Amino acid sequence: MSISSATEAREIGNRIVVGGIIGIVVILAAAAVLLFVNLPDANAFNARVEQLFVANDNLTTGAEIKLLEILAGSGTAFSDTLSSYRFVIFVLLVFATALLVAAVAFLVMLIALTRRMGQIERKGIEVNSLLISRDQGSVYLNNFEFKLTAAAIETLSVLAEARMDDEVLSGAEIEGVISGRDASDCDEAAGATRIKRLRDTLGNQMVSELLVKNIARKGYMLAIDKDVIRMV
Prior knowledge:
Helix content: 55-70%
Radius of gyration: 37 Å
Number of helices: 7
Strand content: 5-15%
């Protein structure tokens, strides 16, 4: 895919995401408007009680007046309760909108991260410098320091020297170089064990798996440009 095509695809994806978020907000806003419009009027009960007062102004006994006062108090309580319900509904709708927008944003981030990881897996690690210091027992990968064991340093050094010569080493050949024996006298599993220990020492699984490539039926090699390798 060309750069222009990738940029265009990214812009289309961004527009779809923004459109989806706007659509979510619009739908929830429309639902909120419909809900609030169809809620009963908070003063409806009070209005009915007022009509009772006006229509029955001849109610003068103590019991009748007390009844009207109770109805008026009930209307006020109903009004206050309905107002609190409106506020609760508003808060819940805002919370639902925030959750949906956050879910869409996290989904987009997850998709982007998955694509990025796929690109890394296809291309390998982009290494600008690899410095192997035997004396310090350290490896500097893009200026990040990794403390390795002596055995891991030796294994990585063998792989680095092979990479500079454009060679792929089998497990037996790695074991032979390190032990000083002929590769035919060495076990393939011994070299594979050294590679496993090197990856374990590096710690980060993604870094170790992508840095040290296993080529089927051939062997192992460093998946980096040989020009960035330095050994001291």
